[in-house]
Structure to design on (124 residues):
């Protein structure tokens, strides 16, 4: 499923069509693609793979038992023909030198979220 923003220049309502086996949705005039994505993953409760770097969308995806994959992870995955992704440093890891040594867990192991992303990308 692919959702495009039509909130500024869309037609009156949401438009959906299938192209090459992919459901393509254009949000209606005045409705953002973000709200369409949130509605879909909330109503159709299953594990969705949501490709987005938008913080609000990724938070909502985790909350609804879906797995968000950041764009910066998904693009190299596509370019490498489905090879294992290289995860960018998380927000907590960037510039937190004062917290060094205070973290718990094995730094060589993937986080729960990284494991979930590996699992869903392996399904593609």
């Amino acid at each position: 499923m692919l959702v495009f923003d039509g909130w500024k220049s869309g037609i009156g309502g949401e438009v959906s069509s299938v192209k090459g086996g992919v459901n393509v949705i254009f949000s209606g005039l005045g409705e953002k693609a973000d709200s369409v994505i949130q509605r879909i993953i909330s109503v159709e409760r299953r594990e969705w793979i949501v490709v987005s770097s938008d913080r609000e969308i990724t938070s909502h995806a985790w909350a609804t038992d879906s797995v968000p994959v950041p764009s910066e992870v998904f693009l190299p995955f596509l370019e490498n023909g489905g090879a294992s992704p290289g995860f960018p440093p998380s927000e907590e890891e960037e510039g937190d030198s004062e917290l060094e040594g205070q973290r718990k867990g094995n730094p060589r192991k993937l986080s729960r979220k990284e494991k979930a992303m590996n699992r869903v990308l392996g399904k593609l």
Remarks:
- The longest helix spans residues 112-123.
- DSSP finds four helices and five strands in the chain.
